[in-house]
Design the sequence.
């Protein structure tokens, strides 16, 4: 997506945070934008009449398919789908919460599955399109307190990478976005340190710039990207010792 001018973009999970900021940024750069999330009133606040708004709960597969069709009715064929939805609640294995773990799976993985189901087959048929998934650097290595969130983000990273390989023969691009800490409603309740944290509008600029450069992976901010890329190279024993020490100190 070297230029967004005239591109028809559907952002799923855009009532606040990164999704809302990215809708603003892409609109500013000339895209036609549709936004979805569960809260119609928040969609209206974000849109202010500029975007097509399609309320949606992504855990409902039939509703997701219907929402995709509503977006097509509003914009025409969808050029780019951006998955911005997500769920985060910290808990550690010392106090396992099965319902919370299931909730992460339900939204972060099964919701993503529903959006892929509603959009990617049409892209394959048309032999064109772009699917963008916002995952997280939390999926790179395991961290105490991120047992559920990190597991789903690791799965998203793997899924998107696999899709990129499969869809490359069908003219469909896939981009993985891995933010570090971003100031949003989701991170507002975090009581632990969040190094290199940035604002949502900064995140939106980084994503839009990465899409303009046709990068298959977008990781930001730069210092967090370097930190987590290095962390992936550490031996398991060294990472285990480091994260155990972090868990004890917190």
Sequence:
């Amino acid at each position: 997506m070297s230029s967004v001018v005239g591109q028809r973009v559907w952002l799923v999970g855009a009532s606040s945070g990164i999704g809302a900021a990215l809708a603003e940024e892409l609109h500013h750069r000339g895209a036609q934008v549709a936004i979805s999330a569960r809260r119609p009133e928040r969609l209206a606040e974000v849109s202010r009449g500029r975007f097509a708004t399609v309320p949606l709960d992504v855990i409902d597969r039939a509703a997701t398919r219907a929402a995709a069709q509503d977006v097509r009715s509003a914009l025409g064929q969808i050029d780019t789908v951006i998955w911005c939805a997500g769920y985060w609640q910290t808990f550690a294995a010392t106090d396992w919460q099965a319902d919370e773990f299931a909730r992460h799976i339900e939204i972060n993985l099964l919701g993503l599955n529903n959006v892929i189901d509603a959009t990617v087959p049409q892209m394959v048929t048309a032999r064109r399109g772009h699917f963008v998934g916002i995952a997280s650097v939390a999926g790179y290595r395991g961290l105490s307190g991120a047992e559920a969130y990190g597991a789903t983000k690791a799965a998203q990273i793997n899924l998107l990478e696999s899709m990129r390989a499969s869809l490359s023969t069908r003219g469909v691009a896939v981009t993985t976005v891995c933010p570090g800490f971003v100031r949003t409603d989701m991170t507002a309740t975090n009581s632990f340190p969040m190094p290199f944290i940035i604002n949502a509008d900064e995140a939106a600029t980084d994503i839009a710039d990465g899409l303009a450069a046709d990068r298959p992976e977008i990781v930001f901010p730069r210092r967090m990207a370097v930190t987590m890329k290095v962390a992936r190279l550490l031996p398991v024993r060294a990472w285990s010792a480091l994260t155990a020490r972090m868990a004890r100190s917190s």
In short: The beta strands are 8-12, 32-36, 52-53, 80-83, 129-134, 172-179, 182-183, 198-199, 217-220.
